[in-house]
Design goal:
By secondary structure, the chain is an alpha/beta fold. It contains 10 helices and 15 strands.
């Protein structure tokens, strides 16, 4: 049995993981405005609660860049006190078992690759769409983290007047149209075709991001996760029409573009860091 932690600025999720299955999944609000030690104490409490038996190890996904070898977390998103946290050392000292730390989007990609929509692939990119854009990269069947787990930060690539994150996340809906995905869904249900046009534009933006992924990685699959994927039925046509313009059909035709399958991909991926 392994213990997996998915740290976010809003919630901290935890679970026992065994044979690719999560159990005793729990979530608590993250005290993101608290000190470094306050947040670490929350993580320790969750681990202690789940440690009815001594775990084989502990895997932790965090929203930041990470020195993977030493398990040091730098500048965690939405947790201001986490500037340089020696997380691996602190957790191993507390529980006496091997602990591995990586970026949360890398954990998402690893979970979907091993147990979800990416099964059977050798090369895969998992992207998460929400308040921002994140990604994890699998190359030749292994997670590619790069320096400080920074590989795959494709949302920061320049695009139009800003970057892909601005045009392929909820930022686009908020900043360009002063709306949300939920509001657009309500308008569509009421017969408002202009709401469909917003999603079509969003899909075309996302298609441009996927083309950048195809040029860079030529993967077997792009797996899309995050909160916005619930609205994929509204933006999929625009997304695929943009991808259809990719100049190398043998690459684009080979790549599957699919929604994520797993609710707990981040936790499964975090546990798999111990493999």
């Amino acid at each position: 049995m392994r213990i997996a932690i998915d740290l976010g600025g809003t919630n901290i999720c935890a679970a026992k993981v065994e044979k690719g299955k999560c159990s005793d999944v729990t979530s608590v609000p993250c005290n993101a405005k608290g000190t470094e030690d306050v947040v670490i104490s929350q993580i320790k409490e969750l681990i202690a609660t789940l440690s009815t038996d001594t775990p084989e190890g502990i895997g932790i996904g965090v929203p930041s860049v990470v020195d993977v070898e030493r398990g040091i977390v730098y500048n965690a998103c939405n947790i201001p006190s986490w500037r340089e946290v020696h997380l691996k050392e602190k957790i191993e000292d507390a529980f006496g078992v091997r602990t591995e730390v990586n970026n949360d989007c890398n954990c998402f990609a690893l979970g979907e690759f091993l147990y979800g929509a990416g099964r059977g692939c050798e090369n895969m990119v998992g992207i998460t769409l929400g308040t921002g854009v994140g990604a994890g990269v699998i190359i030749n069947g292994r997670l590619y983290s790069g320096c400080c787990a920074g590989a795959g930060e494709i949302g920061s690539l320049p695009f139009r007047k800003s970057d892909y994150e601005h045009y392929c996340s909820s930022l686009f809906l908020n900043d360009e149209y002063h709306t949300t995905g939920a509001e657009l869904a309500a308008r569509i249900a009421a017969g408002d075709t202009s709401a469909l046009a917003v999603w079509d534009e969003f899909g075309r933006n996302l298609g441009e991001l996927i083309k950048a992924i195809l040029f860079t990685y030529a993967p077997d699959a792009v797996v899309i996760g995050g909160g916005i994927v619930a609205s994929m039925k509204y933006f999929e046509e625009g997304m695929r029409s943009s991808v259809a313009e990719f100049p190398y059909e043998r690459i684009s035709g080979h790549c599957r573009i699919v929604p994520a399958q797993l609710r707990e991909a981040n936790l499964l991926g975090a546990a798999s860091l111990l493999d």
